[in-house]
Amino acid sequence: MKSKAAHLLLKTIVLVFIYSNVCICQEEWTWRHPLPTGNHLHKAIWTGSQYVIVGGAGTILTSSDGKIWDLKKHFTQRDLLGITYTGTYYVSVGDSGTVLTSKDAETWKLQNTETNIRINSIVNSNNYFIAAGNSGIVLSTNNPIVWSIQYPITGCELNSLVSTGDKILAVGTWGKILLSRNNGQSWEIENSGTQKFLTSVTWNGSQFTAVGFNGTVLNSKDGVTWENSTNPIDFYISDITYIGQKYFALTARDTLLISNDGVSWQPQSMGLNMPLSSILWNGNKMLCTGYIGAIALSEDTGKTWNLMSKHLTGWLTDIACSDNMVVAVGANGTIMTSEDGSTWKLRNTGLTNNLYNILWTGSKFVAQIGDEPKALISDDGIAWSINQTNLENLKLNRLINVTTASDKILAVGEYGSIKGSKDGITWSTRFANVVEAELFDIAWSGNLFVAVGDRGITVTSTDGLVWDTQTVSDCELSSVVWTGKEFITQCGASFLSSADGKIWNNYFLGPDFENIRKIRYYENGLLAIGKYGFVATSEDGITWKKQSSNASVILGGIIQHKSQYILIGEGGAILTAPVRPVGIKNKKSANSRIPAGINALIKGSILTYSISRPVFLEIKIIDLKGRTIAAPLKKSVQAGEYAIDFNKHGISSGCYLVSIMSDGIQLRKRIVLSKHQGI
Fold it and tell me: Which residues in 343-395 belong to E strands, given as ranges?
């Protein structure tokens, strides 16, 4: 093993605009599992004729019977956390100050609240809307288009609201309770007698009851004086409702708490094994919603429950495909298969071990069983055999097909391990113990292997036998790809690229990119996915476009199968999107057309550009930490030819990004400025 000191050398790069003949159309992502959605469902209401549920990534569901659900168009990608209905307006609130309004629950309009603070709950009191959220914010209005804002208490989250008709009560973190006697125009801070996190509150006509963390239950006749009640559990209570002379409180452990008076409670198992967070009564049925799209219905006042959402499995970790079959694997021995990416079947292997990886070798599927010395092998993805391997207590994170003198499969995993195999059963050690750093991914250019891992470690080899190591950053490198001309990996909010695995270019993209968990490259460009449903695409690894995935869960696996992309992740999430041609040929010259009819060319320190029509154009120089160093142009420009000499703007020599923004499209390209050589 050879060890080399870390270093990032940045090369001179010509400004090049590249377009591909196909694109990744994330605007058409479709949920395939769970159904109707895998997003977290936060709140439900009953209008008298239909249920309406709101949830993660702008999810809105409707149903007349609680059994058959219709997933509506997403009017926002922000999480929706609360909803109310007046008979005229539906109003939903959520993350980043979101307020959506509708008159029919079909078409929704995003309203301007002039805040980006998370709004957790909303009630309607005497045709007056009151909403509350983080940082103690309270919004109120008699017209859901225009809102007034106040902060009656700061430093806490307000999580739930209830109206009695003449009073409004809000509960939140640190046991905070607020009471209003004038439709939310002014508030009194009451003493709850607890510091526990309060999650929900209800009113039975004569008594308030609030619930929260560690089994907390509080009761009050007037909202001012509060008393603790006892219950047989000490864990999280997420929601409470009052139904026909009884209280029902929903816990995080598949259990209902039932009480006649809000003081003495009895637990009752729901038998669903699903994480639920909200409960609703419509006069005949009880409805619960929760995480990963869970919807449960009871028609006998909570005695028996049936799951209305379709859930076949839990977390999915990796995905592979042959010409005729797609196979996804995950937690507790899960194997799911599909011939078309749309309809999925759960395959029973009898295993309970986690499956972290899967590979199609060209003739068979291979998946390692947890960290045990066993592998699953299948010719078709349907019938599986368990095979003993020579791996001992080692988890492998990524398997790839290779063609070397020694191996057909290479794998990376724990303890800096790199293993080689011809069949996925018998493995040989090719590399081990990079200061015990875990390796997460590996890519192959056809001539060079690059593996990446914990603490910024990269490991390279030309033959898969002799490996060199270096540290290229101080953060975890979770994914690496070969694009046909360079390797690309991600470090926090920055991307690194290298043609040879030794000299790496570093460029900052922004804090949103810290959510990335995986990057993959296909003939039409790069696709990055990650936390909170993050999806972004790029043709060159520098200029990225965030996409609307319609998902709020963690996404961790990607595959292209025939004419579609398939994403997998948290809660068994499976989403698909088509790959569509856009009819533009590849252009790799330094004088290619970009959107808005602009042609640009760099020569020396001078950017020359021509414009075919009037546009608003912004050109900036940005350093690798994302700071704007110079903004030589920001104005409307008429058609014509223009030039900018960057050396006349007092910019020091070094590596930068040139940002060109027009018609809402931003392109960023790496450049090096030199006082003697220009760009």
Answer: 345-347, 359-360, 365-368, 374-378, 385-388
Domain residues of the chain, as ranges? Answer: 12-24+313-581, 593-673
For the structural domain made of 593-673, what CATH number should be given? Answer: 2.60.40.3080
Q: Residues of 26-44 as b/e, b for ≥16 C-beta within 10 angstroms?
A: beebebbbbbbbbbbbbbb
- The CA distance from 315 to 38, in Å, is 11
Does the global pTM surpass 0.90? no
Whole-number Å distance between alpha carbons of 286 and 636:
58
Asked whether the beta carbons of 70 and 58 are under 8 A apart, the reply is no
Burial degree of 69 (CB within 10 A; 0-12, 13-18, 19+): buried
The percent helix, strand, coil of the chain (3-state, each to 5) is: 5, 50, 45
442, 451 Cβ separation under 8 angstroms: yes
Q: Is the peptide bond before 144 cis (omega within 30 degrees of 0)?
A: no
Lowest mean pLDDT among 528-532, 582-586, 630-634: 582-586
The dihedrals phi and psi of 58, each to the nearest 5 degrees, come to: 75, 20
| pLDDT tens string 2-23 | 443 333 333 323 333 333 333 4
Give residue 28's identity as a one-letter amino acid code.
Answer: E
Cα gap 217→214, rounded to integer Å: 9
pLDDT digits (tens, 9 = 90+) for 634-673: 887 887 888 888 777 778 777 777 777 776 566 666 666 7
| Residues facing residue 125 across a β-bridge | 128
What tokens were used for 115?
Answer: 């805040």
What is the C-alpha separation between 331 and 315, in angstroms, rounded? 5
Give the other-Cβ count within 10 Å of 502's Cβ: 16
Asked if 279 contacts 297 with a C-beta cutoff of 8 angstroms, the reply is no
Name the 3-class secondary structure at 638: coil
Q: Which CATH class is domain 12-24+313-581?
A: mainly beta
CB atoms within 10 A of CB 188: 12
Q: What is the pLDDT of residues 167-198, one digit of tens each?
A: 999 999 999 999 999 989 999 999 999 999 99
